[in-house]
Amino acid sequence: MFYRGLRGFGSCFGLGSGFYGGWFMPLMMGVILIATLVAVIFIMKKSRHTSMKNTYNASLEELKIEFAKGKLTEEEYLRKKRILRD
Description:
By secondary structure, the protein is mainly alpha-helical. The protein is built from 2 helices and no strands. It is rod-shaped.
């Protein structure tokens, strides 16, 4: 009449004498939480790296335009380009 669970009374995923003594679900929730945190950190680092690279490229393009217009000497252009790279 009543389901006895995997080992004794209780539901299969319940507390007490259910599936693996009730430790399986908290363990799986911890694993899922850690995997989610790792994925979020990875995505944030990846997007930050991409945005920094785009900022560098935009600054370098502005510097090239200023040099092409003649507003910068070659020495100033090379010095500022070196500063942007570092």
